[in-house]
Specification:
Helices cover 66% and strands 2% of the residues. The chain contains 16 helices and 4 strands. Helix 1 packs across helix 16 and helix 7 packs antiparallel against helix 14.
C-alpha cells in the first residue's frame, strides 16, 4: 500500500512493457485481463467496499479514535514497560530505543511483510520499506524537533552508531537484490546482520572505550520507576477508577468520557507495567499490530470513497498511519527527556525493517517452498538512494547543530519530507491510470 519506486521507474523508462503493472500496490496483475489499476481496498476484508458518505464518516472517526488508543497504549503501557526493562537490565536509553522499542513499534511492518509473503504473494519490501522508512526518519525528526517544545543536547555516539548500521543494512539490501532474486544464503545474510547488530550493541560500551572515556552511568536509568513520585506507574484499580479532577471544565470531562472506553479495554486486556512488565510489553505489541491494521484499513476506505489515488494515500496518510506507533512512542519519550531513545528508535526501526521484516519472511518462505523469492527491483538505485538521502539529511542536521535536538533539526526534517513527497507524487502523476470500478458489472469479479 506504499509507493513502489522500482515499478514506478520501470514505467517511466518503458511504459509499454509494464502496462498492467501497478507501481503503488504490493501486488501486480496481468495486463491481458485488466486495463486499470486494482484499488488497494481489495487487500482488506469484503466489508465497506461500496462508496457511501456513511462509510467515509464512520471510518474517519474510527481512525481518529484508534489514534487515541495507540497513544494510550504507548503512554500507559509500552513506555512504562520499557522504563522498567531499562532499569532491570541496566540498559542505556539509546540501546533500549534501538532494540526493544524499535522492534515493538515496527511490529506492524513485520505483520504486513509476513502477510505479503505468505498470503497475498505480493511484491513486498521495496515500496513498504521506502514509505515507512522515510516517514520514520524524517517524521520522527520533525515531530520531536518541532512539536515537543524541548531542546535536548544528545550524545553523538549513539546517533552515529545507528546511522552507520542503517547505511550497512541498506547496502546489504542492495547486495541481496542486485539480481532481483533472493536466495537462501542471501536471506540468511540479512537476518544474521541484525544479530551482529545486537552483539555490537551488547558490547557498545566496550567499543566506545576504544575511542573515548565512557561514563558507564551516562544515560542509565538510576531511579526505580516503581518508586518515583512524579508520573508514578498506575495499578489496574487506579487506571479503571480514575475520574476527572474536581473543578475540571466540561472539555476535560468530555475528553475523559471519549477515551475511557479505550482505557477500560486496554486495562482489562493488558497488565499494568507495575506487575509483569514483560507481559505488558508483549500485549502492547499485540495491540499496536491490531490497531495499525485497522487504521490502514479504515484510511484506505476513506481514500477510496474520496477518490484519492492509492499511491497518494500510501505516501501520505497510510504511511503516517502505519508509522503512528513510532511517532507516538518517540514523542512521549522525547517529552520525558529521553531524546536518544527517540532518535535511536527512529533509525533502529528502519534497521529492524530491513534485517528482520524482510530477511525473516524471505528465509522462511524459501525454506518452506524450496524456491527463491523473485523481487521486482529494476529501480533499486533510486530506492536505495532515497533511503540513504533521508538518513544523511537527518545526520547532517545534527552535525550542524552539534547534536542538539531542537527546532532546526525538526524543520530540516520537515522540509526534506515535503521534498520527498513532491518527487514521489510527481512520479505518481506521470503514471496515473484509471482505477478499476469494482462496483461496476465489468470489474465486479474482483471483489
Amino acid at each position: 500500500m506504499h509507493f513502489n519506486f522500482d515499478r514506478a521507474v520501470r514505467l517511466l523508462i518503458n511504459e509499454n512493457d509494464y502496462v498492467g503493472a501497478d507501481p503503488f500496490l504490493m501486488r501486480s496483475h496481468d495486463s491481458a485481463e485488466l486495463n486499470c489499476t486494482i484499488p488497494s481496498i481489495l487487500e482488506f476484508p469484503n466489508f465497506m467496499r461500496q462508496k457511501s458518505i456513511l462509510n467515509t464518516v464512520v471510518c474517519l472517526l474510527a481512525s481518529i479514535y484508534l489514534f487515541i488508543l495507540l497513544a494510550i497504549v504507548c503512554d500507559d503501557y509500552l513506555i512504562p514497560a520499557m522504563e522498567r526493562l531499562c532499569y532491570s537490565l541496566r540498559m542505556p536509553y539509546d540501546v533500549a530505543g534501538a532494540t526493544f522499542l524499535a522492534a515493538a513499534t515496527s511490529a506492524p511492518e513485520l505483520f504486513v511483510s509476513i502477510v505479503g509473503t505468505f498470503v497475498t504473494k505480493g511484491d513486498i519490501g521495496i515500496g513498504t520499506i521506502v514509505g515507512s522508512s522515510v516517514f520514520n526518519v524524517l517524521g520522527i525528526g520533525s515531530v520531536c524537533g518541532i512539536l515537543t517544545g524541548v531542546s535536548l543536547k544528545l550524545d553523538w555516539w549513539p546517533i552515529t552508531r545507528d546511522t552507520l548500521w542503517y547505511f550497512i543494512s541498506i547496502g546489504g539490501l542492495f547486495v541481496v537484490l542486485r539480481d532481483s532474486v533472493v536466495e537462501v544464503h542471501e536471506a540468511s545474510f540479512l537476518l544474521s546482520g541484525y544479530f551482529v547488530y545486537l552483539i555490537g550493541l551488547l558490547f557498545d560500551r566496550r567499543i566506545q572505550s576504544l575511542f573515548r572515556t565512557v561514563d558507564t552511568d551516562l544515560d542509565m536509568m538510576t531511579t526505580n520507576p516503581l518508586e518515583r513520585e512524579d508520573a508514578p506507574l498506575k495499578t489496574f484499580k487506579q487506571t479503571v477508577c480514575e475520574t476527572p479532577e474536581e473543578g475540571s471544565n466540561y472539555i476535560m470531562k468530555i475528553w475523559w468520557a471519549i477515551k475511557y472506553p479505550a482505557v477500560l479495554v486496554l486495562a482489562v486486556t493488558t497488565p499494568s507495567a507495575r506487575s509483569i512488565f514483560f507481559l505488558s510489553l508483549l500485549m502492547s505489541v499485540v495491540w499496536i499490530c491490531i490497531t495499525s491494521y485497522f487504521v490502514a484499513w479504515f484510511l484506505t476506505v476513506v481514500g477510496y470513497n474520496m477518490g484519492v489515488p492509492d499511491s497518494i494515500m500510501g505516501l501520505t496518510v497510510l504511511a503516517a498511519g502505519t508509522s503512528v506507533p513510532e511517532i507516538v512512542a518517540s514523542y512521549i519519550v522525547c517529552r520525558k527527556g529521553y531524546g536518544l531513545m527517540a532518535l535511536c528508535n527512529a533509525i533502529g526501526s528502519n534497521t529492524f525493517d530491513i534485517f528482520i521484516c524482510l530477511g525473516m519472511p524471505w528465509l522462511i518462505s524459501i525454506l518452506i517452498s524450496s524456491k527463491n523469492v523473485v523481487i521486482n527491483s529494476a529501480g533499486l538505485t533510486i530506492t536505495t538512494g532515497m533511503l540513504l538521502v533521508t538518513a544523511f539529511v537527518l545526520y547532517a542536521s545534527f552535525l550542524c547543530t552539534k547534536f542538539v535536538l531542537g527546532k532546526f533539526v525538526g524543520w530540516v526534517s520537515f522540509i526534506a519530507y515535503i521534498i520527498f513527497l513532491a518527487i514521489a507524487i510527481f512520479l505518481e502523476i506521470k503514471m496515473l491510470r484509471k482505477v478499476c470500478d469494482i462496483e461496476s458489472d465489468e470489474y465486479a469479479f474482483l471483489s
